[in-house]
Amino acid sequence: MTTTRTQVGIVGAGPAGLLLSHLLHLRGIESIVLEARSRDYVEHRIRAGVLEHVVEQLLIETGVGARMQADGLPHEGVILRFGSRDHRIDFRTLTGKHVLVYSQHLLVRDLIAARLAANGTILFEADAVSLHGIDTSQPRIRYRQADAEHDLACDVIAGCDGFHGISRPAVEPHLRVFERDYPFGWLGILADAAPSSQELVYANHDRGFALLSMRSPTVSRLYLQCAPDEDVDAWSDDRIWAELQTRFSREGGFTLTEGRITQKGVTPMRSFVTEPMQYGRLFLAGDSAHIVPPTGAKGLNLAAGDVAVLARALEAFYRRGETALLDAYSATCLARAWKVQRFSWWMTSMLHRFATHSDFERRVQLAELDYVTSSVAASTSLAENYVGLPLPA
Ligand code: APR
Ligand code: PHB
Fold first, then answer.
1. Exposed, middle or buried by CB within 10 Å (0-12, 13-18, 19+), for 353?
2. Rounded mean pLDDT of 180-186?
3. Which ligand sits closest to the CA of 351?
4. Is pLDDT at 393 greater than 80 in this prediction?
5. pLDDT of residue 118
6. C-alpha distances in Å from residue 322, one per residue of 8, 285, 311
7. Over the chain, what is the mean pLDDT?
8. Does residue 318 have an active-site annotation?
9. Which terminus of the chain is more exposed, N or C, with fewer CB under 10 A?
10. How confident is the model at residue 1 (pLDDT cuts 50, 70, 90)?
């Protein structure tokens, strides 16, 4: 068995792990990223696609924003559709900012290209199997690659291996978990159809929630509320389009442009937070520490926020031997993560149909939508959360 040494051992080449490795590189700190899947797999994994203004700025300032700026779609607002009518939230007027629609897998590609161009080390098909010495100053990651086991010795481990990784379970006894599972999921499709709206449309219809999003001028991304364990095979393409047409119906008429569905799947909806996000020399970042329901488009952005904090804390540690920022990492990230959790839970609660809702609760939900879209104060609150709360100073 071979042992390699680096400063920061990173488990997972998702947005969290790759962005962390990039930010550390800019600060002269070495890292090695271990990724269980192949490069091709992670570069084609369809996920979300909305970047907060603060994250867009971070990517531009750190030199990995060129393709994002070229191909990303700036959105100055979003539409809430309920009672068969549209209500626009004007981000630009209310906050002076926009969001950027740019696929997560394209961002992953950009980050991998930037790391490799800078001679960074990303080991693909390298499955981290166990973590050792987390409560010592010399932790190690045991990983399997090409049927052989190896050790990666480091000073610090960054657990960026998502919700189903090994990092959080490795310290589970020391963590407290807060969670909420929602009684519904999202059936999402990718379709070769020109987007039927310039901006995202969040629809609250009597038959359930629906979301109109896009990936490019020729590719639409659409979601509809379904059962958490919905059988996607029970949904023919015709049935999906018919249901979407119904849920997006609007006074004065509105017809979705249909096209060939190239990908479909069901995503469960959960809110999940672990506290703390650090144990010994293991720092959790991104989905390994917290999951948000996708209604607020926050998962990727929250992951980026975590690693921005961790990179700065590691810089203070390596440059000045200071541990204050590292010691404060968990509290710093959780303060922002809980606000983002609140926003994602609120958007989910306001926009989905709950089978358990009484007629009274349904009326209150519609009244909340009416208030949020007719009050400058309330729509400003939605807008400032949607474009992104400031990253911790
Ligand atoms: N060893 C190595 N790699 C692993 C292991 C392991 N044992 N377990 C998981 N991984 C890899 C996964 O294959 C994946 O590529 O860790 C990566 C985790 O990436 P993400 O799940 O994308 O998590 P994160 O980087 O935190 O990004 C969060 O991604 O899933 C979206 O909605 C989510 O937008 C959020 C964002
Ligand atoms: C997406 O484009 O996939 C998307 C957009 C907004 C959301 C969730 C997903 O809230």
1. middle
2. 98
3. 2
4. no
5. 98
6. 16, 20, 13
7. 97
8. no
9. C
10. confident
Which listed residue (75, 150, 205, 352) is catalytic? 75
C-alpha closest to that of 118 among 39, 44, 34, 23: 23
Q: Tell which atom from ligand 1 comes closest to the C-alpha of 300.
A: 34
Distance between CA atoms of residues 53 and 262, nearest Å:
29
CB–CB of 38/307 below 8 Å?
A: no
Position 99 pLDDT exceeds 80: yes
Query: Which residues have any ligand 1 atom within 6 Å of their CB?
Result: 11-17, 34-37, 42, 47-48, 104, 127-128, 160-162, 165-166, 286-287, 299-300, 303
Residue nearest to atom 7 of ligand 2 (CA): 297
Mutate to test the pocket of ligand 2, among 45, 46, 50 (most ligand atoms within 8 A of CB): 50
Which letter, b or e, does each residue of 163-172 get, where b requires 16 or more Cβ atoms within 10 Å of its Cβ?
Answer: eebbbbebbe
298 a catalytic residue: yes
Ligand 1 centroid – CA 75 distance (Å): 27
> For residue 348, what are its two tokens?
């989910």
| pLDDT, tens only, 267-281 | 999 999 999 999 999
Q: How far apart (Å, rounded) are the C-alpha atoms in residues 263 and 289?
A: 28
What average pLDDT score do residues 145-168 get?
97
Residue to mutate, 100, 213, 300, ligand 2, most ligand atoms under 8 Å from C-beta: 213
C-alpha–C-alpha distance, residues 314 and 27, integer Å: 9
Instruction: Please state whether beta strands 176-192 and 219-226 pair in parallel, antiparallel, or not at all (unpaired).
Output: antiparallel
Q: Which of 111, 87, 58 is nearest to 369 (CA)?
A: 87
Q: What is the pLDDT of residue 209?
A: 98
pLDDT digits (tens, 9 = 90+) for 300-349: 999 999 999 999 999 999 999 999 999 999 999 999 999 999 999 999 99
**pLDDT of amino acid 47:** 83
Q: Is residue 48's pLDDT more than 90? A: no
The DSSP code sequence of 197-215 is SSS-EEEEETTEEEEEEEE
Tell me, what DSSP letter sits at residue 370? H
> Which numbered ligand comes closest to the C-alpha of 11?
1
> How many angstroms separate the alpha carbon of residue 108 from the centre of ligand 2?
17
Distance 162 CA to ligand 1 centre (A): 4
What pLDDT is attached to residue 323? 98
Q: What is the pTM of this model?
A: 0.97
